[in-house]
Each structure stands twice: as structure tokens, then as C-alpha cells.
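Justification of resources, computational component.

The compute hours requested in this renewal are based largely on the per-chain cost of generating structure records like the one below. Each record pairs the submitted sequence with a full C-alpha cell output. That output is archived, and it is also reused by downstream analysis tasks.
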Amino acid sequence: MKIPAAVLLFVFVPALLLYGCGRAGSNPPVSEETPQASMQPAEEKTEDSASAVIPDVDAAEDFDSSFVRFIEASGYENQNYIISPASFRAALVLAASGAGTDTRAELLAAMGFADIDEMNQWYASLTASKDRFNQWLQDAVDEYEKNKAFFDDSANAPDGAFRLANSVWRNKKSSGELSDAYKAYVKEHYGAGAENVPENEITGAVNSWISENTDGLIPMISSDLSSSDLVLANALCVRTPWVSEFPDFLTEEGEFTAWDGRTVKKEFMHQRGEFAFYEDEETTLVCLPMQGGVNALFILGSAENAMEKLRSAGPETVDVALPKFEAETSLSGNELKDFCRARGAGLAFTPDADFSGMSEEMQLYITDIIQKAKIRTDEGGIEAAAATVILMVEGAAPVEEEPVIREFTADRPFRFILFADSGIPEILFCGQITE
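The structure output for this chain reads:
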């Protein structure tokens, strides 16, 4: 993947809850028989078979940091990975909007929101980051078209992408219909269309939608969705160039020391420039700006309080050496369900769940949450995508299986954060490279 010079970049930062400014809007649909959800999590009524060991989670910790810690404690501590807290939470927003009573309260608390208005403000902030990027891209394209007669033949039009999309898919085999109020609410607030799809077509339809909205980086989220009565889907895709590209002629092979001490060969990109840089006894970090209001943060050593340390970073002349890398992660082994449970949201995964705001005719509950994410980097920039789906069914729960000239040389395990610079950083992607 070679990204033209005027694309955009996104970075992932694991530090704070991102509450942007935006219109709160009206409350989502709730059954007339049930009151508006209390914000106090309720005790789980039915024991949800959770015999597998689930890592401890501090429910008071912000969603993004908590998610990173949980994933690493679930077996990814010494593995390359990429995740998208933003995509995960955006999919949960679709579920919480159709939940009532205690189910909604638990989901909101798990996401780190006090109420529906705060949830909608967060989503409006995420949408604003997307809109700012796309406005930048449109302005850049217009400027290029206006002045392209002055460019040489090697010049390319600005290119990039920042997509954020949601959808709801009802399997026609299900016993009831989605309520008009729910469909109208998720369309107005999250741009989510609702489709009725035959059982033998739902898998292909959802996979095609995800592939289209992630520029083909995530071609398939699941090989079989036919047993699900309802699928809630989110897709997030960012493709952007560095503000200062890495010159091709400076790329050379070098050694990368993996987490276990092994050395492996990688292609390292090099450049010298003025970047935000911070270093103490535990952490070295550098922040590379991307086009369209996005930044890429790279961290050596401890990532604790990385965003706070970034605020203390000053402009320095830095020799940067980064390996070209790709990472792809599929979370489909109950990790996301277990994370929600550990954050206090248990009812949503049992037959006692209340999703009456979605449908009075179907007794729905969540059976699985799946996320796939991928990132690629080169001298031109970064592209990354994630898709998250929430699978819901009617009826009894199945039995689950257990489940000066500074230097920044990333020649050993490092973390990366992709965030949109919207005053308060909006986390899009994060991960690590360990080998």
C-alpha cells in the first residue's frame, strides 16, 4: 500500500475517555410497560455460564485504557495486535439504544457513560472528527484541481478516507419486527439503516457491507451469521498520509529485537524532523502528525499515562526510525463479551435481557460480539480499519464453550495509538508490535 502525499493519518491513544461536544438529542425508544432505565447497575438475574477465567477489570477505569489492559491480559501481552475501542463502543451504542431498564443501565456503565445524553455526545464528537477530516480532504482536492496545471506529471490528487458507518440487520426467520421507533432513532442519531434479510442471505449481505465500508481491509467478519436473529454492525476506516513523508531512498533493512530477545529483519523507514517528543526513565514517545487532523503516537517503554506525558512533550529535532508493519487481529473468542461482563454488563447476554426498545415481539439477547481490525504502514502513510458486530437471538441461551538530536528507533516492542485531534483526543485505533 503506497499512499499519495496528501492523504491522512490516524493514531491511537490509550488514555482517556473521549467526551466531545455535540447535540445530545432525544431519548431512545423504551417499552411503555418499563420505566426509563435507572443508572444503577442491577444484579444479574440469571447465571450466565462464565466458567472461563476472566481477567479482572477496574470498572472505574476509563473504557479505552480498561479495554487495552483486558485484551493484553487475555493472551495478547506478547503478541502483535490492533484493536479499535471506538468501533467496539459504537456497536454497543446501537444495543444500548434499544435496551430498557437494568439492561440499558449496565451497558451504559460498561461503556463509561452516565446516561444516554453523554453517550450521544461521545458519538457526536466521533462524527465531528470524521467530518473535519472529510472537509479537509474536499478542500485539498478542490485546491489541487484549481492549481493542477502548475504541478508536474508525477503529482497525484489528494486521497484518503475516514469512514464511520452503522447498520442493523434483521434475519427474516425471526418471529417479530423491529419497532419503527428504534429504526427511526438509530437512523437519526447514528446514521444506521435497518435491513430485513433472508436467512440464506444475511451472511453475505453483512460481509459485503463491512468490506465496502472498510475499503476491503476487512473482507469478512464471519463465515456464518444465519443463526442470528439480529446483527448490529459498525465499521471504521481511516486512510491517511503523514504530513512529512518518509523518503523511499532512506528505507533500509535493520534488526528488530522481539519481546523474547530474538532478532528479526524488518524494513526501517527514516526521517529527521521537528516533532513532539518526550522522554523519561520509563517512556520515550514521539508524535507524528497526519493530514486531516489525525496524529500517530509511537511509544517505547511504559505506555502508562502516555497522553498526559504527550501534553508535556515539546518540539524537538528527532531522528525517527520506524519499521514498516502490518497487524491484524480477530476478537471472536468471547473476549468482547467477557470484557462487558467484567465491566458489569451481564444481563444483556442472558435471556433476561430487556431489549424491548428494539422490538416488543422478540425477546432478544446478545450471544456474541466480534471485532476484526487491521493496520498497514509505509513511507506514504497509514491505513487502518475495524469492524464490530453484535449478534443477537431470541429464545434460550446456548451452552458456551470455555473460552539535542533526539532519537526514536522502534527496534524493539512498541505501542501505537491512532487518535483524531479534536481538542480532547478521540481514540480510533491502538495496538502494539512485539515481533
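Residues 80-126+158-241+327-394 form a domain with the Antithrombin; Chain I, domain 2 fold (CATH 3.30.497.10). The longest strand covers residues 263-279.
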